[in-house]
Amino acid sequence: MAGNDHHIIQWAVASSSRGKICTGFRISELTLHASTKPTGFLVFLGSTSQVLTVDPVNVEYMLKTNFANYGKRWSNDITVIDLLGEGIFNVDGKKWHHQRKLTSYEFSTKTLRDFNNVVSRTNAIKLAQILADQAAASNRSIDIQDLFEKATLDSAFKVIVGVELDVLCGTFEEGIRFSDSLDAARSLIVHRPVDFFWKIKRYLNIGSEALLRKCIKQVDEFVYKILNSKIEEQVQNSSHGDQGIQMKKSEDVLSRFLEAKQTDTKYLRDMIINLVMAGKDTTSVALSFFFYMMCKHPYIQEKIAKEVIEATQVNQNSSFDELAANINANTLDKMQYLHAALTETLRLYPPVPADGKVCFSEDTMPDGFKVDKGDLVVYLPYAMGRMEFLWGNDAEEFRPERWLGESSRFHPESPFKFTTFQAGPRICLGKEFAYRQMKIFCMILLASYVFKLSDENEEVKYDSSLTLIFVGGLHLIATPRVIHV
Predict the structure, then answer these.
(1) Residue 295 marked in a binding site
(2) What is the pLDDT of residues 89-114, one digit of tens each?
(3) What is the distance between the alpha carbons of residues 377 and 49, in angstroms, rounded to a whole number?
(4) Residue 372, helix vs strand vs coil
(5) Environment class of residue 317 by beta-carbon count within 10 Å: exposed (0-12), middle (13-18) or buried (19+)?
(6) What residues form DSSP beta bridges with 476?
(7) pLDDT digits (tens, 9 = 90+) for 123-138
(8) CA 2 – CA 191 distance, rounded (Å)
């Protein structure tokens, strides 16, 4: 997808006597101008048949009602297993249940929630200071997407692994190399499905596959080094415990896994990569598109800034640290309009624009569409966010108020209608963590700066592989905000 909401999704379609056939469609024609409810569409991409749906009833059936019949596509395992391994986002069945249960428990603890808030405040302050040093003083543009990618990686790695990468400030060379290798590996992995010769290249260890193998090797060396160090530290802590020395409860996810006697390094490596990539990629995309929408709707930017200033009681002389210190559970709860604006951004620009599950046995969707064994059933969060039958005639408009009830408090929608965080048993474990992190970053930045696009006339374009991303970055100008008290 390119960036003006009227792009063409090119589907290579073959004729068939089965189902309803699309010969290719404009995303705007399928979504933006649809006043009636589309059902499923059967599309052929090479030898793979895909059923596309934007119907919440079908989505609920697949993700919840008949959950056991829809799971990860086996071709996904082949293309991404080198990087993701058997992590939680790449497995089904018992392996998934075990990881989900363990991770769900840890993500529900107050200790981890509080740690996430502390880490988010720390990295938001760093980012605000970078803007003060590099952008605000000279009124020059900055690539906010690049900064968010670095900041969210730092946050995710600290919360999951307990190690400070500091990619944002560039003080840790090993951390920078790990970040570069992880990004390169991810980029190479997502292009495998369109490279008909990738298996041959992998066998011969040439071209892109040789580079991918090198990048994954660098990623693994860094992660296993940390794992071995953490396991050794855990052994030492256990021996201290035997001597009656009370140890502080661990805050990061990895340390808590080790305390739960999870010591299989391959298992932990796969879990780390899956959680870190999920925490970094989706949150950085959401923040980037949120600030893009703030620039496109300056009056909403001002309304949110006012909400932040009133909640935190900051003044013209408040430092970034003082502002961050006033962000707590109470002030976060007051940010109802910010929460609505973030959700409205996710409705129109979901980080993962399309998601699918393979059908394990022949089935019939609630709308009557027949699905064969092996079909990939794809629901489209990007399209669903623009459907008039779901959101009304103003589905194209960025209107945070649609999420607020009469009391001006946030009013959620069904996760099968608003599918950004998936739904059912696989609903995103990090949803609340992501919201808190995004709100903390937005509160500190919007209370400190006014943002605008560096070139109001330039057409901003975005593309999608696994996630939406601005092509060439998102270049903004940040001006110090004058607070009126």
Answers:
(1) no
(2) 888 888 888 888 888 888 888 888 99
(3) 9
(4) coil
(5) exposed
(6) 142, 453
(7) 999 999 999 987 666 7
(8) 17
